[in-house]
Design a protein that fits this description.
The chain is globular, with a radius of gyration of 17 Å. Strands 1, 2, 3, 4, 5, 6, 7 and 8 form an 8-stranded mixed beta sheet that branches. The two termini are 14 Å apart. The protein has 6 helices and 8 strands. The protein has helices at residues 23-27, 33-42, 44-69, 82-95, 140-157, 185-193; strands at 5-6, 12-13, 20-22, 98-108, 113-123, 126-133, 162-168, 176-180. The protein is α+β, with helices and mostly antiparallel strands. Helix 2 packs across helix 3 (44-69).
Length: 194
């Protein structure tokens, strides 16, 4: 497991230096028995190959979405990213977010953690903090992750924010699911304590 820690400017620091642990590092301490069973079933090489491909695809989708939100227009979309980008375009059309801020670094000095929100925006005059996911399944950690980001944002700005996960690239009519997440902070903080 990699330990990621950031300073208040959002730069990565060494684990022994002062800073804020990343939310994903904190949540990685939970033992996922289903993940170990899956890895044992597939074997080391195959599970690592699938994991690496999924991570690379997720990174490419996130980069493309950030550019779209910053106003960049693409002439074409790579075939492997098309279901995710089309789903995002459908979501944008339905929700019409305003005051769009992609990739916002946030931290909680009170609890000592940090992370990057994929999107902060307003929808129907309400402030939202949204995390993009490209996986087919939604895991408990996603709700804890987005709620921790929401708490940190509220701490930094004093503004209340609703938190949600936008799952992209699904085999549904719209290609996406948008789910508000309201997990309790004490569950995330228990992970941090571990």
């Amino acid at each position: 497991m990699s330990i990621h820690k950031y300073n208040a400017e959002g730069r990565l620091v060494e684990p022994w230096e002062d800073g804020y642990y990343s939310v994903t590092t904190i949540l990685a301490v939970k033992h996922n028995t289903w993940l170990w069973h899956w890895k044992m079933k597939l074997g080391k090489e195959e599970s690592e190959r699938i994991g690496t491909e999924a991570a690379e695809k997720g990174t490419r989708v996130h980069r493309r979405l950030e550019k779209i939100l910053n106003g960049h227009k693409f002439k074409t979309t790579p075939k492997e990213l098309k279901p995710y980008i089309d789903a995002f375009d459908n979501w944008l059309e339905e929700y019409s977010p305003n005051d769009v801020y992609p990739e916002v670094f946030i931290y909680s000095s009170r609890y000592g953690y940090a992370g990057t929100a994929d999107l902060i925006c307003t929808i129907d005059d309400e402030l939202w903090l949204i995390d993009f996911k490209t996986s087919k399944a939604i895991y408990d950690e996603y709700g804890l992750q987005i709620r921790a980001y929401g708490y940190a944002y509220e701490e930094m700005t004093g503004n209340k924010v609703r938190t949600a996960v936008l799952q992209l690239g699904l085999d549904t009519k719209k290609g996406w699911k948008f789910r508000e997440k309201k997990e309790p902070m004490n569950v995330f903080l228990a992970h941090k304590k571990i």
